[in-house]
Design goal:
The protein has 16 helices and two strands. The chain has 398 residues and is mostly helical.
Length: 398
């Protein structure tokens, strides 16, 4: 037996919709990440240029889409959940992310125990690092920031951003405040990196470039301005003061391709020109264009891949390796150059990842979401009974 939901609340719940264009952004993001990871075994990361390397910055598009959706949803949920908004927000986030993420952790531990993987640390595994990932504190415990599962740093950063979202909601109410937030966080991030660079260069023997390319690229202080760009996108779209033309989308895509040939230097002081923020600015414009475009093929069917993008993000590394193994076995039959091999692995990864991700989305992700909503319904019911007091009937439905 569950409490009936008031009609006004039902209407607001329907308004918290999944925009097709936001799913399309996620689709482009995971496509970029899969492209980069499929290319890595063939071309490596040096030089740090080329369209396949730029696919790494697809994660920025994930962060923009995520924070856009979170802030928009939180604002509307506030009208439904009232004083319970923050509590229900965290329940939804945990049940949305944790079930599949924890299963992926377990699966990759088993996989890495029996098979060598280019995406996993060498065995024996450090279980302190694993636990830091399991409890989503790898963004704070930096030796574990990208341990198991592969790409777990993004989930750690997401979880830390979730903790900050209710606080940001209290202060960011319009486009001007969102602009100030982005600018101030970029300045703060650069200041933090200057301090860290000074400490590493003067008080340790560790090489700065390696740390900048790894830990200090992944951690939240560096990625936080990217999340804030998603909040800016929300208010920018609502302001709607710029008239969109389709040539803008073509121009932004051209700029992205041109940007991919630029080689950024991570040495001091060149690392202050941070590629992640330059790419974020371009991807911000791309996201705005996608939200406005009338070219349907830019949104469909890529949005289908975006719907299952969380599953795809966790699953695809092992499928890249499967594709590599299959192409290596086929090399005795037909000889292919590395570019053709890359395309075969990339297309194989896209197809198999989408098929498997549809299954995990339906049977694991959505089941976790339902469990979270059931828990929220039970909390609502308990609160309503307590507030009604003894002897007061509660309207319910079977």
């Amino acid at each position: 037996m569950t409490l009936t939901t008031p009609p006004a609340a039902k209407k607001l719940t329907r308004e918290i919709e999944k925009y097709d264009w936001v799913d399309a952004l996620r689709g482009y993001a995971i496509l970029m990440v899969m492209m980069s990871h499929s290319a890595h075994p063939f071309f490596g990361d040096v030089p740090r240029t080329g369209i396949t390397y730029s696919g790494n910055y697809g994660v920025m598009l994930f962060f923009i889409a995520s924070s856009f959706t979170l802030f928009s949803s939180y604002r509307k949920r506030k009208l439904i959940d009232g004083q319970d908004t923050t509590r229900f927000f965290f329940i939804r986030r945990i049940f949305r992310i944790a079930p599949l993420y924890w299963l992926a952790c377990l699966a990759y531990i088993v996989y890495g125990t029996y098979f060598h993987s280019i995406w996993l640390p060498p065995t024996p595994f450090d279980y302190t690092n694993i636990l830091a990932n399991v409890f989503f504190i790898n963004g704070l415990y930096l030796s574990a920031i990208n341990y198991i599962p592969p790409g777990g740093w993004t989930i750690g950063d997401e979880m830390l951003f979730y903790l900050i979202t209710p606080f940001l909601f209290l202060f960011i109410k319009n486009l001007r405040q969102a602009c100030i937030l982005v600018i101030s966080t970029v300045i703060a991030s650069i200041a933090v990196q200057l301090i860290v660079h000074y400490i590493i260069a003067n008080y340790t023997s560790h090489p700065w470039v390696i740390h900048r390319d790894w830990v200090f690229y992944f951690w939240l202080p560096n990625q936080f301005p990217v999340f804030c760009s998603g909040i800016l996108l929300l208010y920018f779209i609502e302001k709607n003061s710029i008239k969109y033309q389709e040539w803008m989308l073509v121009t932004i895509m051209a700029i992205f391709f041109l940007l991919s040939i630029v080689q950024f230097d991570l040495k001091f002081p060149y690392f202050l020109i941070q590629p992640e923020y330059i790419y974020t600015a371009v991807l911000f414009c791309f996201a705005w264009c996608i939200s406005k475009t009338r070219v349907n093929m830019m949104i469909k069917p890529i949005n289908k891949l975006g719907t299952v993008s969380f599953s795809a993000y966790l699953i695809h590394p092992v499928l890249v390796e499967l594709g590599l193994w299959l192409t290596s076995r086929a090399s005795g039959i037909i000889e292919l150059n590395e570019h053709v091999n890359f395309m075969v692995v990339f297309l194989f990864t896209i197809f198999t990842t989408y098929v498997l991700s549809k299954w995990t989305y339906k049977h694991i992700e959505k089941r976790g979401i339902r469990l979270g909503e059931q828990l929220i319904d039970k909390i609502r019911q308990r609160s309503s009974i307590q507030s009604a007091g003894p002897g007061v009937p509660i309207v319910a439905k079977s």
